[in-house]
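User: I'm putting together a small comparison set for a docking exercise, and I want a reference complex before I start. The sequence is below, and the ligand is heme C. Could you produce the 3D structure with the ligand included, as structure tokens?
Assistant: Of course. I'll restate your input first, then give the structure tokens for the complex.
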Amino acid sequence: MRNRMGILLLTLFALLCTLAIKAAPPQRGQQDQDGKNMNRGVPWAYGFATPFVAAPAPGAGGGGGGRGAAAAPAAPAPAAPAPAAEPEDRDTPRRLPGAAAAFALKEVDNNYGPADWYPQDHPKMPEIVAHGDKAAMVNACGFCHYPNGKGRPNNAGPAGLPAEYILQQLDDFKSGARTSWDKRKRNTGQMIDIAKGLSPEEMQAAAEYFSSMKWTPWTKVVEADMVPKGHFVGGGGGLNMPLTGAEAGMEPLGDRIVETPASPEDTEPMRNPRSGFIAYVPTGTLKKGEALVLRGGPGKTVACAACHGEGLKGNGGFPSLAGRSPSYLARQLYDFQHFTRVGPGSQLMQPVVANLSEDDILAIVAYVASLQP
Ligand code: HEC
Ligand code: HEC
């Protein structure tokens, strides 16, 4: 990637130098050039209703834990827990439209060999993607990321990413260079353990498999003021599912993105890999995001296409971004900005995000997610 892109990168580096390059992440209470908060957290991106508050580091003298500490604003009351559900029937085979085989729930969520509803939708899975590696306690990649690599907003969609980029990310998870800013997010820890358990051959097979598939539309982005009431399920940073029964209703969206299954039952419990997501974003966000993504702004950021390619469809070793989950994207921007994602590739991203407020991040990811992949 570096060879092919050398000249472009040099030009960009010059450009990036015109931005205030910070050696450290935003500090508690810091504001951007428009007076917007830079350290309130984006809990919706990590799968929580309330912001993460880091425990103060010993002797941090009120610094709130140094790197990545969050100020705690008045948080909205957490959603009420779901009413006690009937015990789930895990043994009776169930069907999805167009799927040749039927699967019981215990097969659907078998993390060492989850149901493959639509084998015709993807190439033959390598063993590590289909079944994981039980001896090494590595779950099947296809369990969280689905056999087609589209994944869920609370994990990631490795489909359609460059193989060399995927390998680098696995290395970064393994080395500790890629962690979650929000320490409550449990499945990032699982991903880290998985990367540590993989052999080089398994990494290679998984990277080639996921990169061989194209990224296709998966999240519909809709501007809205009112959204269905939801709650995060799964614990430790989960999926936003709409409330049902007496608790169902609408509520103001406010200053966040609500990304939720387009068809709740299809996603949970069925894990239907043809059923995507809908992301509600505040009215007016797309226009603001478009301006930042296409043109950057003096002292703010640079146009993303310079590296991520025309329409943000990817470019050489640079990952594609168009049409990907806005919650996932926001988490990554926040992790770069707060230096919990510090692998070799992050050096190019850090100056891009250094001066973004949380409102900017929200607008950018809403627009990027709305782009046709
Ligand atoms: C227990 C669920 C789980 C399993 C199983 C899992 N992952 Fe992940 N993976 C995650 C989560 C969660 C993230 C995103 C972490 C974050 O946002 O902080 C992730 C992120 C990734 C990314 C980064 C994608 C990007 O765009 O940078 C890659 C690559 C990846 N996983 C590959 C794999 C491979 C290969 C396997 C199988 C060997 C696997 N994962 C198995 C949960 C999982
Ligand atoms: C100077 C080149 C450059 C520019 C400009 C740039 N990026 Fe990146 N971006 C990268 C590189 C390199 C990576 C891979 C980072 C890594 O390896 O961790 C990346 C990764 C990302 C990721 C994580 C992708 C994933 O799958 O996890 C996101 C999100 C992202 N960039 C968003 C943006 C946005 C939004 C902009 C414009 C505001 C932008 N980038 C501008 C170079 C750039």
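The chain has a mean pLDDT of 88. The radius of gyration is 20 Å.
User: Thanks, that's exactly what I needed.
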